[in-house]
Automatic annotation (TrEMBL):
N-terminal signal peptide: 1-28
Signal is among the record's keywords: yes
Top-level taxonomic group: Bacteria
Protein name stated in the entry: YXWGXW repeat-containing protein
InterPro entries for this protein: YXWGXW_rpt
Keywords for this protein: Signal
Length: 103
């Protein structure tokens, strides 16, 4: 096998390995733990209903040592599923964020 073909095959193998590593790490779950309870939920005006979408209410997000408000947004509906909003749950080591998901 000539040298340029070997180099091409090695580079292709590295690219494929890199893509599979990125794909497997992209599905890893990130666990967010805050040391204190989030502030009370803010009142938001929910926009008029949109066909094919569900409203995901705003929530507090733990970011660099403090809570910041994330405004609500529309989620594209998934037929046959219902939207379970994200929420904070108190645990022994702090408060954990349970992300919104379709169930």
């Amino acid at each position: 096998m000539n040298k340029s073909l070997r180099v091409l095959l090695v580079n292709a193998a590295l690219v494929i390995a890199g893509v599979s590593a990125v794909a497997s790490s992209a599905s890893a779950e990130v666990i967010i733990v805050a040391p204190s309870a989030p502030p009370p939920v803010r009142y938001e005006v929910v926009p008029a209903a949109r066909v094919g979408y569900v409203w995901d209410h705003g929530h507090w997000q733990w970011d660099r040592g403090h809570y910041v408000w994330v405004v609500g947004h529309w989620q594209a509906e998934r037929v046959g599923y219902h939207w379970v909003p994200g929420h904070w749950a108190g645990r022994g080591d702090g408060w954990r964020w349970i992300g919104g998901h379709w169930a």
